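Margin note from the TA: students keep mixing up input and output lines. Inputs are the sequences; the output is the structure of the whole complex. Example:
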Amino acid sequence: MSAEIISLERAALIQALQRVATGDRAALEDVYRRTSAKLFGICLRIFPVREEAEDVLQDVYLLIWQKANQYDPKRASPITWLATIARNSAIDRLRARGKRIMTPIENIAEPIDERADALTCLIEGESEQRIFDCLNRLDNGDQVLIRSAFFEGSTYADLADRAATPLGTVKSRIRRALLKLRECLS
Amino acid sequence: MTDDDNILAAELALGLLDAREEALLQARIDQDAAFAACVAWWREQLTPLVNEIEVAPDAHVWPRIAGGLPSNDHILRQIQRWRTIAISAMAVAASLLLVIVMKPMPASQSPQVIMAARLDGQAGTAATVAYEARSGQLTVVPGRFDTSTHDAELWIIPDGGAPVSLGVIDARRPTHPSVVTDRRPLIQAGASFAITLEPKGGSPTGHPTGPVVGAGKIAAT
């Protein structure tokens, strides 16, 4: 997406959320139409069974309906605010059931690097693209760990189990990678 | 921000920490604006990752969500609404079923005090609620209202105060739920009981979110 489209989309979402805060159901449908694929993607990563992910998604939009008046555009972009609600709802529900995602993470030691083509990065060099570019500069294993944390709500302890790697090793790897990311993103 | 703070903020944004560590850092977010901004920065940076995993939900999902929405509410309107209810409840208090029963008890025991209120709403009596102070037990006799898509939640509203939940009630039969110890002092003359329809499992916010099916004030003694 071009920067212009992103900022138009953002403005439209902010407006829609402000209307949701007044109890406007059509505005919530508008928010849903613009964001449900992203938020459903988040739910599905944590609850891979579609019916369960749909239940979580329903909770998420109910929360949005109830909390829209708390959204402050100065503090977060609308999609970040919405994605945070979706992630937290899904993770809370998972933890409330005493469950964790235990799918093994393999080969994190391999520094195989599937760097995105440098030219592609240049062409798509919008701010939205930067996180992908910067993640691609990390070792493959570090990328996998960070994506698993973000998408699956895995804590350090979960990641250490899933990757069959000592907790201390996982922590120091991720922390090093986070500093590199920070440097690249800034 | 030091490197350590930056890492902490990223760990929080990514959800790498366990619940206890997260709770501790939440306190810091509330007090340390620079740290809060750092966490917000990381969240913004990471958000575009969700573009990687987009999946459109099936068409049947939206109608289900729309059908389950409570009438919207937010804090200001909620308080206004509850004030209105409290005032009108006060005005008709005398007409409601408000009973204080003193049963003769052995002198050594505190008297059994039962407080009761009839919870009236637009569609008639939603329930009759009695409370026995010594045992902390309620008796809830529900009237008729539709709970096929919602749960009925009982609230105690201190005079001039905000509603406090007494839990979801069974709308089909009389029950005797016990009141949590720290909420018992709220049930006294001058306070009101109310029932609202809430999403299944009860209000997710701790405040009433749905329509009021009935409310009634406990009489002054």
